[in-house]
Amino acid sequence: MCFFIAPDGLSPLTVVNATSASLNVSWSAPVNPNAPGPLMYSLQMRTSPQSSILRLLENATDTQSYYVEGLSPFTNYLFRVVVSHSYGQTVGPWATLRTSEDCKY
C-alpha cells in the first residue's frame, strides 16, 4: 500500500536580478515531491511581517521564477513559495529580499 504526503525539502527563494524597482525571484523544486503528478507553485509576498499577504502567483506548474515590478528602491520585501500536489502542500519559509539602491548621478 502506498501513502503519499506533502512535498518537503524546500529551499529558500533567491534573487536572480534586483533593480531599484523590481526583483526577479527564483526557487527550486522540493527535494522530495513525495507523490506522483505535477507540482504546483504559488508565490506570496508581504512588505513587513505584520502586513497582508499578496498572492503573486497561484498554482503554476510551468515556472520556478517570477518577476515582480513596481517596488520601492532599497526596500526589504518578504517572499515565500507554497508547493502542492493532490496529496498536500508545504509552505516554505519567508525570505527577505531587497531591491537595489536608486543611484542617480
From TrEMBL:
SUPFAM superfamilies recorded: Fibronectin type III
Gene3D superfamilies named among the record's database cross-references: Immunoglobulins
Superkingdom to which the source organism belongs: Eukaryota
Stretches assigned to the Fibronectin type-III domain: 9-105
CDD domains reported for this sequence: FN3
Protein name, UniProt field: Fibronectin type-III domain-containing protein
Organism this protein belongs to: Ameca splendens
Upper taxonomic lineage: Eukaryota, Metazoa, Chordata, Craniata, Vertebrata
